[in-house]
Amino acid sequence: MNKPSLLIIDDEKEVLSALERLLRKDFRLFLFTDPLKALHFYKENPIPLVLSDMRMPEMDGATLLGEIAQIYPKSQRLILTGHADLASTVAAVNQGHISHYFNKPWDNHELINTLKSAFVDYQKQLLPIKLLKQNRHENLRLSQQNDSLLKVVQDKQSKLDASLSHLQQNENNFIELYANLISLHTQDHTGHNLRIASQARCITRQLGYDHKTTHQAHLVALLYETGKLAIPQTLLTCCYDSLNKHQQTNYNQFYPLAEAIMQPVDNLKPIAKIIKHIPNHYDGLGAPDHLQGEAIPFISRLIAILSAFDNLLLGRKMPLSCSFVKAKKLIEAQVDKHYDPHLIACFSTLMKNLTHSKDDAVEYLINAAQLRIGMQLSQDIHNTHQAILLTKGTLITQLHIDKLLHLENTQQEVLLIYVHTMAD
């Protein structure tokens, strides 16, 4: 592996020689006795690690590191001082934004280990940027495909109508592709995000929100697990309650990771902000920012309820899948604590009535007890051995309901049944 680059500035040549002998094995070194020349070099060659002496004739270390922080804020800046000068150290912290300082004579072991740790911190800062570059590469590929498709559409329609229609379709295709990539990484084959998106649209429309808010709720539901793309699949394939505290902490990073990945994309900035606040608790005790009540974005409060309920049914939360009735009770028990009481009421009504939508289908994950005559299966029904009991598209009859209820009762297994409802 390449050695981390380290710029060292000290007006004493003997000190530079000692540092070179100590550090050349682990770092690629750039040595300067003149801080002005070092600053000129750094403008052309910003590198991750900078170690400067405090007292120098042309420019003190605090001023120098302050200039370097302006050139490359992500750099890790450290300082050496041979003086017990508190004021100078404070100035270096405030002006140069240093991460560590060492007194002369330094401890060799401490100096090497601290520099290595600083480089690790620097690399962590670059992770969201790396993910963003990957995302931009995929965007570029999609953009090239969109350009070729646009020519076909423009031949059949007016330029303005074709452009508007195509851009909207491209956005939908991109979001759908992105959602599919998330599902592949999380190994979800049930359409979890699509399902809660359809339910979020239904509730948002019922509450009288405009098309923009309804569309945002749809996008947030599809993309709220974006941050899981940066989390190992070994964590995602286990139910949350089976993880240890350290693993749960790493797992919970998927919300801020989603914001970091999406924030640089202008069209996704509002979505990223909403996703960031999904884990907020209604009573203000949840992270991030400890927002409380209606200070939490409406869509964040809504998706928190719908995603938690669906994850309980899928067995993502606890070792065993919850029944529809038990999962609903667990969610409702958190009213005024985790969840908005008004939206809990909307959720309870939605799940009680399995509401139709006049605009598009709403998918629900239920058990045999919630089946009704005339419902249509949106996915195959499997038993615990993955044998198909009924196929997608089947219209439910009373005979189906009776047989499935009998199976649940005799086999003591909760069937996962996917149905969609739509007004005639």
Structural category is alpha/beta
Largest sheet: 5 strands, parallel
* Helix fraction bin: 40-55%
Query: Any low-confidence stretches, pLDDT <50, length ≥5?
Result: none
CATH topological fold name of the largest domain: Hypothetical protein af1432
Mind telling me the CATH superfamily name of the largest domain? Hypothetical protein af1432
Shape: elongated
Adjacency order of strands in the biggest sheet: 2-1-3-4-5
Number of strands: 10
Cα gyration radius (Å): 29 Å
N- and C-termini, Cα separation: 64 Å
Total helix count? 16
Please, what is the average pLDDT? 87
Task: Assign the CATH class of the largest domain.
Answer: Mainly Alpha
CATH architecture of the largest domain: Orthogonal Bundle
DSSP strand (E) fraction? 5-15%
Give the count of structural domains.
3
Topology pattern, helix = H, strand = E: EHEHEHEHEHHHHHHHHHHHEEEEHE
Short précis:
This protein is α/β, with parallel strands linked by helices. 54% of the residues lie in helices and 10% in strands.
Plain-language structure description:
By secondary structure, the protein is α/β, with parallel strands linked by helices. It has helices spanning 13-23, 35-44, 61-71, 86-96, 108-156, 159-186, 192-206, 211-223, 233-236, 245-251, 254-262, 269-276, 298-314, 324-332, 341-353, 398-411, and strands at residues 5-9, 28-32, 49-53, 76-81, 100-103, 362-366, 376-377, 381-382, 388-390, 417-421. Helices cover 54% and strands 10% of the residues. The strands form three sheets. Strands 2-1-3-4-5 form a five-stranded parallel beta sheet, with helices on both faces. Strand 3, helix 3 (61-71) and strand 4 (76-81) form a beta-alpha-beta unit. It folds into three domains: 5-106, Response regulator (Rossmann fold), CATH 3.40.50.2300; 127-366, Hypothetical protein af1432 (Orthogonal Bundle), CATH 1.10.3210; 367-424, no CATH class.
